[in-house]
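Sync notes, pocket subgroup
Present: LS, DG
LS reminded everyone that the earlier model was apo-only. Rerun requested with adenosine-5'-triphosphate included. Inputs:
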Amino acid sequence: MAKETKFYMETVQAIKQRFEIIGNDPKLNRAIEKAIQVAPTDISVMVTGESGVGKENIPRIIHSLSHRKHGKYIAVNCGAIPEGTIDSELFGHEKGAFTGATSTREGYFEVADGGTIFLDEVGELPLTTQVRLLRVLENGEFIKVGSSQVQKTNVRIVAATNVNLFNAIEKGKFREDLYYRLTTVEITLPPLRERNEDIHLLFRKFVADFAHKYKMPPLKLDDDAVQLLQKFRWNGNIRQLRNVAEQISVLETNRDITLATLQSYLPTEGSNLPSVINDKKKESDFSTERDILYKVLFDMKSDLNDLKKLTLELMKNGSSKVQDINPNLIQKIYGSQENDSEIDFEEEPRTAVMTPATREDNYQIQDDNYLFAETIEEEEILRLEQKEIEMIKKSLEKNKGKRKAAADELGISERTLYRKIKQFDL
Ligand SMILES: Nc1ncnc2c1ncn2[C@@H]1O[C@H](COP(=O)(O)OP(=O)(O)OP(=O)(O)O)[C@@H](O)[C@H]1O
């Protein structure tokens, strides 16, 4: 082995230990090696790879091996920040820039001066934000929202995406000049199914961690189960593998795991299993009555959230303003009310109000009623949440992990779906 290569390999192993990165796959090692090589420079890096492959490790490595290591490292999930606030989050705002801007606020680019910002899911940035970002990349300049004063910052940007940004460029959703600015070097992480040797290694590490965490003896897979583990497609990559490891660790009392047991924890439909092709349910996964019911519940929950948002704004801004700034939301919730084009927000809500009984009255009974009502509500919420998780998983599987298609099918925005994936760790 050439001296230089040996040096890099030793460093790669040390970095893996330091960042608790499991695996020995050559493509993984090459990705880490590239991160080590670019770290001392200020070269812009784009990390690519499917969701859940561990892209976040790369910017952490780059930052900690760079001259910026004593500066701030900020990881920003561009897909998880609402469009309306992203400019202010990234670049800050002046007092009074918009309703609710009660004081001047520093954005991440100001806070991270001298450090590194990791822009995860960079393809989700709105076009207006992309223009601001391009300016920072070109000359380190930015302007706070609501200000006219140009400020300077010295931040290294590492970006990541799990979608093909060329498609977004073609559709006019991502600026080509920004893409090239962000991608001097591309570091690609392989999907788990291409890291055959690493799958069992990772699984063993996760079950050992969970055994420790839940104070249980570790699980052991028999040979057939190991084979299935390695053949499975793992569309959700390491995140999915870890979830499965956790579920089995918690739920299986018999710690010797057979093929059948493992299989019962893996989705059987869709694209995860290469050998099982299910033709029967191709048309629609939401065709059974039960699924339609869940879909209705899911829609109801989404409407409820919209209503909550409207009510909050109503309290803050008064009725006329709410109607002006939320025409789409109002249309979505109330539909086209032809005879009733103006919705009277001042009207008393027609909801039943539970009046608390006086203490002299049947205090105990009333109190129990409240408790009962609260318990039911909590259970309902949990059950609904479980259904929501099921539906999201199902839709993602059906659409081969494509969030846009899954969001369309579920009738929610891609941004909401993204947040739910993070919230439920799917
Ligand atoms: N090599 C590894 N060894 C151990 N754990 C890992 C490894 N790579 C990733 N993980 C774990 O897998 C999970 C998913 O990783 P991460 O969030 O970095 O994925 P990602 O590629 O950024 O996904 P997304 O595109 O959805 O943001 C994390 O909990 C991370 O700690």
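DG: The CA atoms of residues 357 and 365 lie 9 Å apart.
LS: The radius of gyration is 26 Å.
Action: DG to write up.
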